[in-house]
Design brief:
Helix 1 packs parallel to helix 5, helix 2 crosses helix 4 and helix 6 runs parallel beside helix 8. With about 240 residues, the protein is an alpha+beta fold. It has 2 domains: about 120 residues, no CATH class; about 100 residues, no CATH class. The protein is globular, with a radius of gyration of 19 Å. The strands form 2 sheets. Strands 4-3-5-6 form a 4-stranded mixed sheet. It has a two-stranded antiparallel ribbon with strand order 1-2. About 40% of the residues lie in helices and about 15% in strands. The protein starts with a strand and ends in a 6-residue tail after the last helix. It is built from 9 helices and 6 strands, in the order E-E-H-H-H-H-H-H-H-E-E-E-H-E-H. A hairpin with a 2-residue loop joins strand 1 and strand 2. The longest helix is centred in the middle third of the chain and has 18 residues.
Length: about 240
Amino acid sequence: MADTGQHGPYPVTYHHRMSYARDERAALSDLLVETGPAEPTLCEGWNTVDLVAHLVLRENRPDAAAGVMGGPLAGYTRRAQRKLIGRASFGELVSKFRAGPPRLSPFSLPGLDERANVVEFFTHHEDVRRGRPGWEPRKLDAGLADELWARLRLARLMLRKAPVGIEFARDDRAQPGTAAAGGDAPRVRITARARTPLVTVTGTPAELTLWALGRTSAAQVRLDGSEAAVRALTDTRWRH
């Protein structure tokens, strides 16, 4: 049975047993089995075994995963990840990830898997998919696209060091004022960083999510703004 509610700026139909995090976990697990341990990914310096070890560590050892974004615990996290790879086979790591978090993990708390893992698993699924030649963008379920769009508001934190203002524009919805939009057209823009000059990053929620998370070489987006502003934004040194 489904119910319809307001999710972010768009009405979304919810299916009570639907879990985008669970679906992405299963699809990523299947893809990892298909690729094997030594395939490249979009995560710099990581192949597929490194990526799945990170995911297992994140759910089983939150203390050891704390340095994945860098900082003073980065070395501790790298050592823990390498030890995990040394102790378990690739197949065992994939099986452990597929099984989900252990009972005592914070990620096993009701509702937290969906809140914390939708973007994480979607992004890493694409890290593996787009690390291989010949990939094509997936056609996403409309509900997952809406979920990714709603989560883009959190990108303000990740983009706080950007040298210019950033606005996200969603191009898979009817634009306000068009015949397709009808009466109450949905808002299709998010201000991720309020600053001038402004660059508008246009794409689907999936592509915008990947761009916001630093997968800029693989994200299919369009940047609109002054030449100087776009050049400053595409210089990725500000992300480090």
